Amino acid sequence: MTGIIMFLAALILLAVGYPVAFTFGSVALFFGAIAAVVELLPDPTLIEVADEFFSMFSMMPFRIYSIMNNTILMAVPLFILMGIILQKSQLAERLLESMGILFGKVRGGLAISTVLVGTLLAASTGVVGASVVAMGVISLPVMLKYGYSKKLATGTICAAGTLGQIIPPSIVLIILGDVFQLPVGDLFKAALAPGLVLVGCYILYIVIIALVDKRVAPQIIVPEEEKKGSVGRALTAILPPLTLIVMVLGSIFAGIATPTESAAVGALGAMVLAAMYRKLTRKIVMDASLETVKITAMVFAILIGATAFSMVFVYTGADLLVEEFMTGLPGEKWGFLILSMAAIMLLGFFIDFIEISYIVVPILLPISQVIGIDPMWFAILIAMNLQTSFLTPPFGFSLFYLKGVCPPEVSTVDIYRGVVPFILIQVLVLASIVIMPHLYGL
Amino acid sequence: MLEKTEKTIGRIVNGMGTVLAVALLLMVLNVAYDVMMRYLFRASSVGMQEMEWHLFSVIILFGVGVALQHEAHVRVDFLYDRMLPKTKAYINIIGTFFFLLPLALLIFFGSFGFVHDAYVMNEISEDPGGLPYRFLIKGMIPLSFAFLIFAAFGYLLQNINNLRKGS
Amino acid sequence: ADKVRWKLAMSWSSTLTPFATACNNLAKSVEEMSGGNFTIRVEGAEKHKAALGILDMTKGGQYEMGHSASYYWKGKDISSVFFTTVPFGMNVDEQNAWLYRGGGMELMQKAYEKFDVLSYPGGNTGVQMGGWFQKEIKSLDDLKGLKMRIPGLAGEVFAKLGVNVTNIPAGELYTSLDRGTIDALEWVGPGMDIKMGFHKIAPYYYTGWHEPATELQFLVNKKAFDKLPKEYQAILVTAMKAAAADMYTDNFADSADAWAQMKTEFPNIEVKEFPKPVLQAMKKAADELYDEYAASDPFFKEVLDSQRAYMKKARAWTNISEFNYIKTTQELAE
Ligand code: NA
Ligand code: NA
């Protein structure tokens, strides 16, 4: 119960508009104090309550230290730096414009290109902040410049940026591998088809919506006199930055770098590329670096606030409530699948995916085994579902991260509205995996 | 007087921003160097590898204060955007007092023991060739939150000055 | 009776069998033996998010208990390695005899005194495997420049032999070994390795030398322990011992199952022993390392001497009993 009130309190206070990170943290503080009182009922004394409260929050340095030495998270600043350098040197703009031109008469070319570039990035990182922010700085300004609706632009970026969770490598899949006791490599292989289908569906949606509503994704008009050889010119503009992104992937596949290290290859490569185009000045490098520092700090401040929030959330016993509900799910295949998927999606609205994985899955797993549900199939369903949780308002992390790099005219509500169609697509793809697993090789 | 203090704090926070920007570039070179040494020369140094996350930690911890001054922290803005500058300033002042400062103070004071333990034990890396003096990197937690509190005062002044200019 | 509610933090997630099972067993038997009055809530790393903060958190009293491995505190006190396992050290029987009858427990409490905690054996994994290798190790030269993830003392031994010891986060190990970013890694044994899937990407599985008897540990906050009623103290100590013993059995059975499964599904896995000259060099490097640490740390020397002396005696018995029996039956089977 306290957990639900805590969630509502966070919701209301967030709406006031003070920075998300500190709001999360202070809600945790307040409810931590309440939890300390409740813990000591019926006769709490001030000293005991204070003791309980400080003991709870003395966990914070440990949690912060765990974030500090989680080297996988280094991908966040590295990818953001790559994105900002590509943007500041205008290489990103030329890449997307040229890809847009190559799509010719097909409307929505910029958005489709964003999904494609996002897919490539997704194949080299599994950290959500890294790809969402990188895609945000690379493609949002370009799409807005060409008159794309804020809704479509932000929705596309959030969705493309979150692909990293389902397209391997991915932290979600690694954690599910641990909980399900399935080899991570097998999960990676199994997630590939669903991930690519998702990419296909995003593109299909963009093509259709751009046709139906001509205002949301205007065509890139190439002036008549420049038309000659524009395809050739577009190709030459695409090649270098695309090579860079492929090199990032290549460095992993060739065994040169780990996925996280490949992000540094990307950042350094972007600087070399910018230098080749004579766009690299000391000012650009320092500006890009400072901007990256600020955005990275914004991402991690949210992580620190959220870790305080989830610490207290669990402390109030909210996880036990969830446990109780899950244990009561029906023992019949379709009822179980539908209800468990719905429950996970609902939880994804407000608690983080690691918590969900470890609280919910151990309860659902034995039931699913009794019913005879293939664990690999079930794991992929949950992964897909958790991926959606990064997108769902109000607490979807992708939304906050993208907001952090948006120009002021794009509001949180634009982003919230923008992701709705993409969430629906995810639900449809999820449903298709539930109904026709064989199509995905599951 | 208030404006002068605001400017001074602002300059120091900006100076930190520049330091962190350089640290980030060093981190990129650090990772790239480690990749190159391992791949080309089959020579890894665990110490150099640990240096990566040491730099990373400094960036994410101290960056929080820098981001505050530069208004880089995310807000849910559907109401905030429609408010008068005066209301915004009030929200920021009250929020900083009741949301930011308590949290920052709690983490600041709450991490002394954490750092002290590492110092007394003379804790070092547990891996072959890793870095010594773990208390230094652990000490970045209270230091960075002290810096955040410092930056928060600048931010308070900034908003108070905005209020006074407005009225 | 007094109501006591404790919390225990693990270095692992709450789904990691059989490590987490040991803690759940402990909590269950403590609750049952105390008639429901003494309860322990077990929290995995996914909750407290500080897998390597267990010692600090038990010391600080955020948790009354912890479940971890002593050698994780090598950076705080090098002597802590002896209470888990060391390269070329004792096997499980020998080590248990040292702990309970050879003065090991006393030395362990002495080591943990400065942390204001008590440490008890927390379950053994037995011999850990030497790791998964992409190429065969035929001579010392093959170790030179080999890119391997191998932490702790074993890493220091390998570093002395020219191995390129490197740190890779657990989540990236599979991709790194698969793509050749590293050439080899060590993990635990079949039971836990099978979940990581290394057997699908590396052909050689080397036998163990570096962790012959990895004993986990229960940590108990000393102040909290002293505050317990006498009978609860007895319940706790007994329950820890039972949980540790059960974990050793569970781990043995899990590994036997997993190894049978691996062998059937992947008959091409080649189990290898390091060649004798390589092992000799490893042993020499390990002894040199111990002597270096002993020269600068009197307590390290004290524990080292105790283990060396005990092992000499115990191994003589192992040789004519366990070892000889296995050798004899092995010869009969052939
Ligand atoms: Na990914
Ligand atoms: Na091991």
UniProtKB/TrEMBL annotation, chain A:
Q: Can you tell me where the transmembrane regions are?
A: 64-86, 98-121, 127-144, 156-180, 192-213, 234-257, 263-280, 292-316, 336-365, 377-402, 422-440
Name the InterPro entries on file.
DctM (IPR010656), TRAP_DctM (IPR004681)
Gene Ontology, cellular component aspect: plasma membrane
Subcellular location per UniProt equals: Cell inner membrane
- What are the residue boundaries of the TRAP C4-dicarboxylate transport system permease DctM subunit domain, all occurrences included? 8-438
What membrane topology was assigned to this protein in its record?
Multi-pass membrane protein
Its predominant location is membrane
Q: Which Pfam families does the record match to this protein?
A: DctM
Q: Which UniProt keywords apply?
A: Cell inner membrane, Cell membrane, Membrane, Transmembrane, Transmembrane helix
**Single GO MF descriptor:** transmembrane transporter activity
Name recorded for this polypeptide? TRAP transporter, DctM subunit
Source species: Desulfopila aestuarii DSM 18488
From TrEMBL, chain B:
The subcellular localization recorded is: Cell inner membrane
Q: How does it sit in the membrane?
A: Multi-pass membrane protein
**Which part of the chain is the Tripartite ATP-independent periplasmic transporters DctQ component domain?**
27-159
Q: Which GO terms describe its cellular component?
A: plasma membrane
**Keywords per UniProt:** Cell inner membrane, Cell membrane, Membrane, Transmembrane, Transmembrane helix, Transport
Q: Which Pfam families match?
A: DctQ
The record's listing under PANTHER family reads: 2,3-DIKETO-L-GULONATE TRAP TRANSPORTER SMALL PERMEASE PROTEIN YIAM, SLL1102 PROTEIN
What name does the UniProt record give this protein?
Answer: TRAP-type mannitol/chloroaromatic compound transport system, small permease component
